[in-house]
Amino acid sequence: MLPISNCISSASTASGTPNAPKPTTRRLLALGLACLMASACAVSTAQDTPPKNTQTAKPQKTYADNPLALELAAKLAADKKIPIERTLDILSQAQFIPSVVNAVRPPKTPTVKNWDVYRSRFVEPIRIRKGLKFWSENEATLQEAERKFGVPQEVIIAIIGVETIYGEHIGNYRVLDALATLGFDYPQGQRDRSEFFRAELAAFIDLCENTHLDALVVKGSYAGAIGLGQFMPSSWQQFAVDGDENGIVDLFNSRRDAIFSVANFLKVHGWKPGTATLVPVEFREHVDLPTLLAPDILPTFLPETMSQLGLKLGKPVLTEEKLALVELVRGEKPSTYVVGGQNFYTVTRYNRSSFYATSVLQLAEELRSRRAQIPNQAGNTPVDK
Fold first, then answer.
1. Which end of the chain has the least Cβ crowding within 10 Å, N or C?
2. 0.90 exceeded by pTM
3. CATH, residue 211
């Protein structure tokens, strides 16, 4: 940059040149002002341009920087003795997954529920064919699970079939990412379930710290469900069973562990052998639907009361068993209705949907019916492969 004095000096030198016109005071002031402005611009440019290789990039924030993450880490430290630094290190490696957020958002265009469409996804040839194969390959384990927990073999198979097609589709999302995304970035504009997912995230970290699972590797569904039976981390902790008694609960690779765990979950949540699951129903001439549907899927009415309210049950049930009328909406078509007992309600504890429970129990019925048609099936010696 040329100093202002040099500008003035140059002007003076020019005035000493032979035949050059003599500079006036106004001309000197104008030249000095121009140099001053040029100098100011140069200084400004120099200040706006940082020196090369001297500016440090600002560190990118991670989920470990979220105040709720510190709260989660502190709770794990107090309750589970997991060091705060360890939890925060795991959370610092969690990634935000946009597709997880999109998966829990309501559709932009509201859709009408349709039982026929839902059923076609689960009570279908592939799950039936592979379910029969799964039954044949794990018959001894399934029989033992039924004796131990009281849950029919076909119901256990149907749940694993609906959830993952018997282990073929356990999910491609890293569970840490899915739970962190939903725990810290749950989408706005709908019922906020972020607290639930933070609790599952804490359970997942605790589970991985105390088992063979690696928190940075385990994959599952977009909601963080894992294994053949798609247990949430807290359900793994509470209900998973070491079926093969090898000291490790493995719901990914041990079919015996998965079968026993599904059966145990249903038993703990109220499965009662010999009671109703799904009961066909017909309407009499006068039926009190508002009263019958008011409790939703909660078993409320005795069979005699249902009869008085206008229902005719399609098969016998225990006289003291409480039942619920379940409506299955079919889009623009008339709804379908079934009656569910305590065992129907128990299946909804696995997934709180009447569509889900009906699909599981209808798939179970289809599997039982098809298996009974296989020649000499009853005489086969159960051998798990």
1. C
2. no
3. 1.10.8.350
